[in-house]
Design goal:
Elements lengths: L3 E7 L3 E8 L2 E9 L2 H4 L9 H15 L8 E4 L11 E3 L2 H9 L10 H12 L4 E5 L27 H14 L8 E7 L3 E7 L2 E6 L16 H10 L2 H10 L2 H6 L4 H9 L3 H24 L6 E6 L5 H11 L5 E5 L3 H13 L14
Parallel strand pairs: 1-4, 4-6, 7-10, 10-11
Antiparallel strand pairs: 1-2, 2-3, 5-6, 7-8, 8-9
Helix pairs in contact: 9-10, 10-11
Length: about 350
């Protein structure tokens, strides 16, 4: 009987679904969600049934029976620091993602939805995460923040970063364990890391560095503190994490729409779009320090890496550091499905998620 894996990756405005049979993709689909659709929910957790129904609807359209699945795998939510590789989704993980997450992020819904899909598939079908959001390989230096009360967390698009590191290494004819890269993932949120010999030694999360299509990025704390006393928490989160970045300035989270404005000689749209590329370039310079300037390349990935305009600006400002390597889109579904397949056939062993009590 064939091994059938369902991989899901929840993004701010998309639900990406991949289905493999014997480790070969049968389809990869992206379900787009409009701002109007998502604005009916006051928090990401209220989107659960909506996202689940969209996934089931897609599977029905594709003629895929949930009952035939061998395993379900999802992009992980925000968890305590974890190891690289796979973990079985258990009740503790779902509870943590739902009730104790540090950041309201759509990925926190993934474990709950994957576990529900696995239950629909049958009692012996398991759900997994792979190379989770909080995969922690940080150097000791990177852990110091500036106040002992707030420790540095390893959070970012780490699943895709490790995946595109392997892709870029192949492009230049090396093993990823031989390479040093700076990787900028430019999606609904933008995170930037230093990858040294396949270890993410430092990372700027999507609220620590450049603004993105939806995130406000790094903002002076004195202004954020003032905002927190003027508005409820959910409103502050909305301003900074759902309606920041390009959406705040231009009323859209779609880079393609911004480029149309620029083609129509909208100078303000060009200024904002160029500022996004400028901030990503500065972050690449910062992460170059994490690998001591010994770089094989700067990898640009995520949705905005499809933009020739954005990539040319980044090359102008950061190209002196190292060659720019474009790996547009993301390889997260491939990394998820491949990891779950290896676990299912016994090449890898899934770890048990626990929470330290000390």
């Amino acid at each position: 009987m064939s091994v059938q894996i369902l991989a899901i990756n929840l993004g701010g405005t998309t639900t990406k679904v991949g289905y493999t049979r014997d480790n070969t993709f049968q389809f990869k689909e992206t379900i787009e969600h409009s701002i109007a659709e998502l604005n009916q929910f006051s928090s990401v957790f209220q989107q659960k049934e909506f996202r689940l129904k969209e996934i089931l609807k897609l599977l029905e359209t594709k003629g895929v029976s949930v009952r035939n699945l061998s395993a379900v795998v999802t992009r992980a939510g925000v968890l305590p620091p974890i190891d690289a590789g796979g973990y079985e989704v258990n009740e503790l993980m779902v509870d943590y993602n739902t009730n104790y997450q540090a950041i309201e992020h759509i990925s926190n819904l993934g474990t709950s939805i994957a576990r529900q899909l696995a239950k629909l598939a049958g009692k012996n079908v398991k759900a997994y995460i792979y190379d989770g959001e909080t995969l922690d390989q940080l150097s000791d230096l990177a852990r110091i923040t500036g106040t002992k009360k707030i420790p540095k967390q390893s959070i970012g698009h780490l699943l895709n970063m490790r995946a595109v590191g392997r892709v870029a290494a192949q492009k230049i004819g090396k093993k990823v364990e031989e390479c040093n890269f700076v990787i900028a993932h430019m999606g609904g949120g933008t995170s930037v890391c230093g990858l040294a010999k396949n270890r993410i030694v430092d990372v700027l999360a999507d609220d620590e560095g450049p603004f993105s299509v939806e995130r406000a990025g790094s903002i002076a704390l004195k202004h954020v503190i003032k905002l927190c006393y003027e508005l409820p928490q959910n409103e502050v989160m909305k301003i900074l994490r759902r309606e920041g970045g390009l959406y705040s300035y231009l009323g859209t989270n779609d880079g393609r729409e911004v480029e149309k404005k620029i083609e129509q000689r909208d100078d303000y749209a060009k200024l904002v779009y160029e500022a996004l590329a400028y901030q990503v370039s500065k972050a690449c310079g910062e992460m170059a320090v994490a690998v001591e300037g010994d770089l094989d390349g700067i990898i640009l990935t995520g949705g905005l890496a499809n933009s020739a305009m954005i990539c040319s600006w980044i090359e102008k400002w950061a190209g002196f550091l190292a060659p720019i390597i474009q790996v547009p889109g993301e390889y997260e579904l491939e990394a998820l499905a491949g990891g779950a397949y290896r676990i299912y056939i016994g090449e890898e062993k899934a770890k048990l998620f626990t929470i330290a009590t000390d």
